[in-house]
C-alpha cells in the first residue's frame, strides 16, 4: 500500500475509534447506574417484605388472643411470663393498630369521621324510586263486606305504594333519609271515593360518631321493633304482612313515628345490638296518644350468629305507651330467623323465620261493669322459603292470632311463588285461606298478584 494511502487509512481508524470510545464509556456508565438502581429496589423490596411479615405476625398473635378469649399469652420457654398487650406498648401499637382493650377515655371520645370524597369533588345524595302494585282477587261477599286482607280494595289492581327515596351523607358525622310515598286508600261508602294518599313516610337524620360507639337518629321513622317492622312494603317476604302484625299495629305496621332512637353494638366477640327509642305514639291501632307527656317507649335486643353455611338471628322487643282513651298498652315480641345457604354458587337457599307477640292492654269497662277491663292477647306467624336459584322461590306461611281488644281469633295459611328476573324487578303469586271466629267470623279465600320494581338506589335491610 502506498505511504499516502496508509496514512489516510490510519487517520480514518483513529477518527472511528475516537467516536466509538465515548459511546462505550457511556454504556458502561448506564450499566453501572442500572445496577445501583436495581440494588436499591432489591433493598426496598426486602424492607417491605420484612415489614409485612412483622405486621402479619402481629395480626396472627392478636387473632390467637381473641380466639382464646383475650387470655394472656403463655409463658416463654425460659419460664418468664409474657407481658399482656394492654399494659405496655406492643408491636401492634407501633404498627398503628388499635389496642385490644380501649380505655374509658377512648370510649367516651367521639369517633373520628371518615372522608367522604376527594377534595374539590361535589357530594350528591342517592335517589331511588320504588313501585309496588297488588291485586286482591276474592269473592263478591268479601268485596261487599270489605273484610278482605286489603279492606276496601278487593278485586282491584291498585298501587299499594309508590315511593320516592332520598338518602345520603349530610356530612362526615351524619346521614339522612327522606321517603315520600303515594298509595290507594280503601274505598268509602261509594266505590268511586278511592283516592291516592301522598304522605311523608320517613325523614330522619342518623348521627354516626357519638361517644361510646353509639348511633342515634331523630325525626320521622319506622322504629326498630321486631323482625319485620323496619321492612318496607315492597321488601316484605310475602305480599301481605302477617295477620298478627296487622291486628296489633295495623296494615302498615308500627310506622310513621316521630321521636328519637339510639342503638349500640356491644363490644363483644359476637354481634349484640341494643336499641332504645322514645316517640310520640301516633299509631292509632295500638297507641294513639300522640304526646311526649305519655310517650311510646320501645326497646330491642338483637343478636346474630354465623357458622359456615348457617346463620341465625334472634331478637326480643318491647313497646309500651298509652292508647287514645288513656289506657296503657304493652306489646312484647320474640323473633327468630334462620338461613341456610349452599356453598359454591350460593343456591339453593332455605329460610325459616317466625315471630310471636303478646299484648297486655287495658280498656274501658263494658256497660254495667266497674273498673277497667284487662286484655292479654297473643299471636304469631311462621314461614319457610326455598330459593331454588336467583330467580325462583317458593314458600309457605302460617298465621294465628287473637284480637287485641275483642273476643275472637283467626288463622291463615298462605303458599306463594316468587319470580325475580333481577334484583330490581319481582313478581309474586300468593294464595291465602283465612278462617276467623268471634268478632271476625268469616272464611275467606284470596289470590294476591304482586309486581314491584326499583329505579335507582334502594338500600334494604336484609338477612
Give your account of this protein's structure:
Strands 1-2-3-4-5-6-7-8-9-10-11-12-13-14-15-16 form a 16-stranded antiparallel beta barrel. Helices cover 19% and strands 43% of the residues. About 7% of the residues have low confidence. The longest helix is centred in the first third of the chain and has 65 residues. By secondary structure, it is α+β, with helices and mostly antiparallel strands. It has a single domain, classed as Beta Barrel (Porin), CATH 2.40.160.10.
Order of the strands making up the biggest sheet: 1-2-3-4-5-6-7-8-9-10-11-12-13-14-15-16
Q: Quote the CATH topology.
A: Porin
Q: At CATH's second level, what is the architecture?
A: Beta Barrel
Count of DSSP helices?
5
> How many E-type strands?
16
pLDDT averaged residue by residue: 82
How would you sum up the global shape? elongated
Tally the structural domains. Answer: 1
User: Any idea what the radius of gyration is?
Assistant: 34 Å
Alpha-beta content class: alpha+beta
Q: What's the CATH H-level homologous superfamily?
A: Porin
One letter per element, helices H and strands E, the order comes to: HHHEHEEEEHEEEEEEEEEEE
Amino acid at each position: 500500500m502506498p505511504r499516502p494511502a496508509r496514512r489516510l487509512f490510519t487517520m480514518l481508524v483513529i477518527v472511528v475509534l475516537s467516536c466509538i470510545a465515548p459511546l462505550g464509556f457511556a454504556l458502561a456508565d448506564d450499566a453501572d447506574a442500572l445496577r445501583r438502581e436495581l440494588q436499591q429496589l432489591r433493598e426496598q423490596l426486602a424492607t417491605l417484605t420484612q415489614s409485612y411479615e412483622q405486621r402479619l405476625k402481629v395480626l396472627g398473635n392478636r387473632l390467637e388472643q381473641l380466639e382464646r378469649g383475650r387470655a394472656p399469652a403463655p409463658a416463654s420457654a425460659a419460664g418468664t411470663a409474657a407481658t399482656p398487650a394492654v399494659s405496655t406498648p406492643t408491636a401492634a401499637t407501633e404498627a398503628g393498630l388499635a389496642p385490644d382493650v380501649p380505655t374509658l377515655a377512648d370510649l367516651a371520645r367521639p369517633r373520628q369521621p371518615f372522608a367522604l370524597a376527594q377534595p374539590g369533588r361535589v357530594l350528591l345524595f342517592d335517589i331511588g324510586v320504588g313501585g309496588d302494585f297488588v291485586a286482591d282477587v276474592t269473592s263478591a261477599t268479601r268485596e261487599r263486606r270489605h273484610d278482605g286482607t286489603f279492606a276496601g280494595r278487593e278485586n282491584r289492581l291498585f298501587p299499594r305504594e309508590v315511593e320516592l327515596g332520598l338518602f345520603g351523607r349530610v356530612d362526615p358525622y351524619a346521614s339522612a333519609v327522606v321517603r315520600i310515598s303515594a298509595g290507594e286508600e280503601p274505598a268509602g261508602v261509594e266505590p268511586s271515593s278511592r283516592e291516592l294518599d301522598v304522605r311523608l313516610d320517613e325523614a330522619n337524620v342518623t348521627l354516626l360518631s357519638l361517644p361510646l360507639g353509639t348511633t342515634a337518629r331523630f325525626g320521622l321513622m319506622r322504629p326498630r321493633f321486631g323482625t319485620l317492622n323496619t321492612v318496607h312494603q315492597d321488601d316484605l317476604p310475602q305480599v301481605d304482612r302477617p295477620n298478627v302484625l296487622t291486628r296489633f299495629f295495623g296494615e302498615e305496621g308500627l310506622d310513621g313515628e316521630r321521636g328519637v332512637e339510639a342503638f349500640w353494638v356491644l363490644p363483644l366477640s359476637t354481634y349484640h345490638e341494643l336499641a332504645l327509642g322514645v316517640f310520640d305514639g301516633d299509631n292509632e291501632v295500638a297507641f294513639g296518644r300522640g304526646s311526649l307527656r305519655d310517650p311510646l317507649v320501645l326497646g330491642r335486643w338483637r343478636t346474630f350468629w354465623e357458622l359456615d353455611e348457617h346463620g341465625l338471628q334472634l331478637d326480643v322487643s318491647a313497646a309500651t305507651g298509652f292508647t287514645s282513651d288513656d289506657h296503657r298498652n304493652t306489646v312484647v315480641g320474640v323473633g327468630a330467623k334462620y338461613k341456610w345457604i349452599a356453598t359454591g354458587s350460593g343456591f339453593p337457599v332455605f329460610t325459616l323465620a317466625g315471630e310471636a307477640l303478646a299484648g297486655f292492654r287495658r280498656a274501658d269497662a263494658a256497660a254495667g261493669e266497674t273498673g277497667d277491663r284487662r286484655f292479654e292477647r297473643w299471636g304469631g306467624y311462621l314461614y319457610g322459603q326455598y330459593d331454588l336459584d336467583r330467580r325462583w322461590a317458593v314458600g309457605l306461611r302460617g298465621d294465628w292470632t287473637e284480637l287485641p281488644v275483642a273476643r275472637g281469633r283467626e288463622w291463615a295459611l298462605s303458599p306463594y311463588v316468587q319470580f325475580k328476573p333481577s334484583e330490581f324487578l319481582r313478581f309474586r303469586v300468593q294464595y291465602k285461606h283465612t278462617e276467623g271466629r268471634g268478632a271476625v267470623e268469616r272464611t275467606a279465600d284470596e289470590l294476591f298478584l304482586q309486581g314491584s320494581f326499583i329505579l335507582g338506589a334502594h338500600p334494604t335491610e336484609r338477612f
